[in-house]
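Sample pair:
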Amino acid sequence: MERFTISLDDSLAVEFDRLIAEHGYDNRSEAVRDILRRHLDHWRESNDAEGPCVATLSYVYNHHERDLVERLAVIQHDQHNLTVSTMHAHLDHDRCIETVILRGPARAVRKLANAISSERGVHQGQLNLVMTEADPMRHESHGHPHGHSHPSHD
């Protein structure tokens, strides 16, 4: 592990310590590492739009909206290679929430999320995208048995 020292003015240090306490970090180093990881993720995404990512897209929609459920299914099926899983829950008589787990190139994942979120009847969509170092579409052997095989995507 590499060490380095930084200097903060007093007001920034006080505010940083409040953030540390609010988020439950054990120390400043943990907080700095977490902030740095987030910043680097954003930087990687802006510099490598085709880079691999994993993401969740959550959105609330009116299930009474004409043909919306079918339109959403078509959008996801058209990009089945990006969709890992979908969870659906009923919020009330009119509204449902879905959370879709996505993986693939960041640009394609964002495009799919935008297509779903912009459908008439979809409300309050939120994408949480995390850049990954390895291609999440490839299922390489990872050295432990668990009763199933991974298909090759070569």
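Residues 12-47 form one domain.
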